[in-house]
Specification:
Elements (H helix, E strand, L loop, with lengths): L5 E3 L2 E3 L3 E3 L21 E3 L16 E4 L2 E4 L8 H12 L5 E6 L4 H10 L7 E5 L16 H14 L4 E4 L7 H10 L4 E4 L3 E4 L1 E2 L4 E2 L5 E5 L4 H14 L4 E4 L5 H10 L3 E4 L2 H4 L3 H16 L10 H8 L1
Parallel strand pairs: 3-16, 4-7, 7-8, 8-9, 9-10, 10-15, 15-16
Antiparallel strand pairs: 1-2, 5-6, 6-14, 11-14, 12-13
Helix pairs in contact: 2-3, 3-4, 4-5, 5-6, 6-8
């Protein structure tokens, strides 16, 4: 009997497959197609302390190998989330990871404190939000800000804290080490890469925001490389994401050093992707006689060292 259980900062998941924030709502919109009981965890859409309207439209554009989005973290705010989404998710035997966004340190702390007595198993902190008080530079692009926001969130959080890292930096390991220094319990990476598309016939930007976040298969080689680098630089468990479409993709991230994986853009292309990936990982383990999925985590690095 194979075991797909993984331990993420003290939280046991029945398998390493979860949804990526912003691609699955908070579960209800996929609930008729996907049995959430089969997933290791559901990661919610970003939750702010007050409703955010998001960016003007158009805010999604298809590109080679993926998509650009400039949704702007539109969400109904904490109160609606707590009264509508959390009760829905509690019906299922899966872990609940709440993605938290904010424009100032105080915004993050407000949400984290409110989640303290809610049925959330972990918190994922989206530090790609622009820091309003620092001129709009994202928290996640300044190592000092990463360490500071991590430390402040940890001071107020009752659940384990996952810091979600932006790839739009010179050296992702510097940001990972800053999050570790601030007391993070786990890391998730990568968030989207900044991209742009221009409609040559209209001679206009395809997105009203001009730039957007690139996700999908095009980013996977970058994401796998960054997960590997971070796994070598810090001792924290990693949730790997970025272009995971199939079980093969997920296994690649696990071999690179990810303890768990998050499936994002694939949900738009194939609503059943997460369940397909869970089954595919089990098939892979049976094919190669792997009894415990933990044998695969970071296996390429171990093989390289032993070789």
């Amino acid at each position: 009997m194979i075991s797909t259980k993984v331990n993420l900062a003290g939280v046991e998941l029945k398998n390493p497959v979860m949804t990526a924030s912003g691609t699955f709502g908070s579960g209800a919109e996929y609930g008729e197609m996907v049995n959430l009981n089969h997933l290791g965890a559901v990661v919610t859409k970003g939750v702010a302390n007050v409703p955010w309207p998001g960016n003007p439209t158009p805010r999604i554009a298809e590109v080679y190998g993926g998509m650009l989005n400039a949704i702007g973290l539109q969400n109904p705010g904490f109160d609606v989330f707590a009264s509508r989404d959390l009760p829905f998710l509690r019906q299922f035997d899966t872990k609940i990871i709440v993605n938290v966004c904010g424009k100032t340190t105080e915004d993050y702390i407000d949400v984290v404190e409110k989640l303290g007595d809610q049925p959330a198993d972990m918190l994922e902190i989206n530090i790609s939000c622009p820091n309003v008080k620092e001129g709009g530079i994202a928290f996640g692009q300044d190592p000092k800000a990463v360490e500071m926001i991590t430390r402040e969130v940890k001071r107020h959080a009752k659940q384990p804290v996952i810091m979600k890292l932006s790839p739009n930096v010179t050296d992702i390991t510097v940001m990972a080490k800053a999050a570790e220094a601030g007391g993070a319990d786990a890391l998730s990476l990568i968030n989207t890469l900044t991209g742009m598309k221009i409609d040559i016939h209209k001679r206009k930007f395809a997105l009203a925001n001009r730039t957007g976040g690139l996700s999908g298969p095009a980013v996977k080689p970058v994401a796998v490389r960054m997960v590997y680098q971070v796994s070598q630089a810090v001792k924290l468990p990693i949730i790997g994401m970025g272009g995971i479409m199939t079980a093969d993709d997920a296994i690649e991230f696990i071999l690179a050093g990810a303890t768990a994986v998050a499936v994002g853009t694939a949900n738009f292309h194939n609503p059943y992707a997460t369940e397909d990936i869970v089954r595919g990982i089990e098939d892979y383990m049976n094919l190669y006689g792997i009894q415990d999925i933990n044998e695969l985590i970071g296996a390429v690095a171990k093989a390289d060292t032993e070789g």
